[in-house]
Amino acid sequence: MRFSPIVLSLLAAVPSALAALNGACSYGVKGICVNTSTCSSYGGKTSTGNCPSDPNNVKCCSNIPCKSNGKSGSCMFTSECRGQTVSGLCPGGSNFKCCISGPIVRTIPEGMGTVFSHMGWQMITSTSSAQYKLRAKYGMNFDSQGFGKINGRYVVAVTTWYGNVGDTLKVDFAKGQSINAVIGDIKNQNDAGCNQYGHMNGQCVIEFVVDKTGGFLGYNGSKTATNQLTWLKGNRVTKVTNTGHLPF
User: Fold this and answer.
1) Within 139-241, where are the H helices?
2) In this predicted structure, what is the pLDDT of residue 18?
3) Tens digits of residue pLDDT in 139-166
4) What number of H helices and E strands is found in the chain?
5) How many Å is the Cα radius of gyration of the chain?
6) Among residues 159, 241, 242, which one has the least CA distance to residue 193?
7) What does residue 235 show for φ and ψ, rounded to 5 degrees?
8) Which stretch of 68-72, 128-132, 133-137, 154-158 has the lowest confidence by average pLDDT?
9) Domains in the chain, ordered, with CATH?
10) Could you count the other beta carbons within 10 Å of the beta carbon of residue 9?
């Protein structure tokens, strides 16, 4: 059987017509297009006519509640969240997450947060990554010691337990110091010895993002975070508070 060019073009258009599944609702309605049974299982509310490209059993799902560490939030697209996003609590794809408003505080157990590593900011090269887009928005700027800074905040790498790229942090230390930081990269929890707190089984909570050409150990010199910020020696991270997000 031979198909005419018109029929073939119509067949080719079918997948794109259904591509709105897990996409945003239409006509300005805040929500996600999902199966009605999925919406019900997550406690959301369905509305008709806001997912016109999808089958009848796919409708706009909104007002989806979620909760993380005792704090209530709502499921939404990450681009809409102005707080902390938490994965695994909402329907849809990886860009639809639980949004918790206000500061989220992470307390670090005794014996963890004692090691401070570093990575070169120039190592971020994927133009499609959030890390790259954040740097492109605010510039790759370093202080006199070679630490990456955005709006006066130290650029750091942490696990997603503390937040996502662009989130702002207040990091408290056992000896009374604190720093303001922004997440510029994410630690890979699939790495050996990395848990929710950080690498080395949680000993390394904070990784400073530095100038690769600035004389740091492993690149072209012997500088480390602790010999530049000497107050870090014998110190440890006790608390990390997610305070907000920088748009990019």
Assistant:
1) 225-228
2) 41
3) 999 999 999 999 999 999 999 999 889 9
4) 4, 16
5) 22
6) 159
7) -105, 175
8) 68-72
9) 5-102 (no CATH), 106-245 (2.40.40)
10) 10
